[in-house]
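I had to read the description of the data format several times before I understood it. In essence, backbone conformation is discretised, so a fold becomes a row of integers matching the chain in length. I therefore recommend that a typical entry be quoted early in the introduction. For illustration, here is how one protein appears when written out as sequence plus structure tokens.

***
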Amino acid sequence: MEMQFSLQGKTGMCRLAEDLDMQSAEDFVHDNKAFLAQNLGMKELVFELSAVEFMDSTGVGALMQVIRVAREQGVVCRLAGYSPEIQDALELIGVFGVLEE
């Protein structure tokens, strides 16, 4: 999976360059866990999803897994740049509720 990571101050960004689905979920989790481990002082992680046109249940599960790991490290997660279609899927599954907890 193609992703770009950046860190500005205590805010990290994961910019996805393709869909998050069964084929890319494992790489997504692995790479984000590594990014979190390398940046222990990070306070916020933003997932930039403007290039994501499709996210299946495996992709949503991968996103939720990374959010849980980030929370355990005291990192707040946010989603940005998602399309209305991706927003509908995330709302249906309850991702925004988890982010607000």
